[in-house]
Amino acid sequence: MSEQLQLRRGTAASVATFTPAQGELAVDTTYYKLYVGDGATAGGWSVAMAQRRALAASGTTILGTDRIIAHTTLSGAVTDTLPAASAFPVGERLLVIDESGSCSTTNTITVQRAGSDTIGGGVTSIAVNVPYGFLALESNGSNAWTVTDSFLAAQAPHGASMQFAVLEITSGALSGALVTLSNVVPANCIVFSVGAYVTTTITGATSYSVGWNGPGGSSSTFGSGLSLPAGSANYGLIGPTANYSLANLTLTPAGGNFTAGAVRLSIHLAFCNPSSS
């Protein structure tokens, strides 16, 4: 004979007014959350659960039971639609994140509202547009979402935002008189520096330089006479430079051609996004 175990259960409102005994469990049938009692606290204590849903190159309509929306691959722009704020538990965090590292100003993840809800004080959507970018939100249980953490430094009510990003690119095996990394600096950003770190000792040259074809660019914009041994690093600081088009980075050897080695470049930049409504 089969047996079935059922726990105390009820709507979110009814569970909130019930005081479970110490160690007693109660199920919220509105949001499907589990609570454990201490014998004194009305509603008990929420048992933490993180419901992660992985998405491959697609957007989704987020469910009230989702807690993490993880984009594991991206090949174009996608849109995630939030559940109604009234259908998401108050105090629970929802995280939308790029786990692929392919998010960009082209491969964006747009998080948009449901119905007439608002996000972050008045906007209807927020776009994640940097590698490994993320957006964390909480619902007020009624009609609005608050951004609790994100890649954004600041955002205004009509979508204007300020964001900072660091993009890392590895050169691969160095060879020849010039190595070009094409279209790695995003358009419509302010560039502060391009750092360089030698991951594999460089041979064939006596030093090298890092440059670009962006505004005021040269073969040594971000440094020249740089060291070759693995572990060598350079900050590559410049005066903040507005860059309006996709730009290339270049590695140029001095004293001979590259015969081996590899460099990891880090692009430090900011986006100043205008209002979207």
UniProtKB/TrEMBL annotation:
SUPFAM superfamilies per UniProt: gp9
Domain of life: Bacteria
Pfam families the UniProt entry points to: Mtd_N
Name of this protein: Major tropism determinant N-terminal domain-containing protein
Gene3D superfamilies: 2.10.10.30
Lineage, broadest ranks: Bacteria, Pseudomonadati, Pseudomonadota, Alphaproteobacteria, Hyphomicrobiales
Domain Major tropism determinant N-terminal: start-end pairs: 6-41
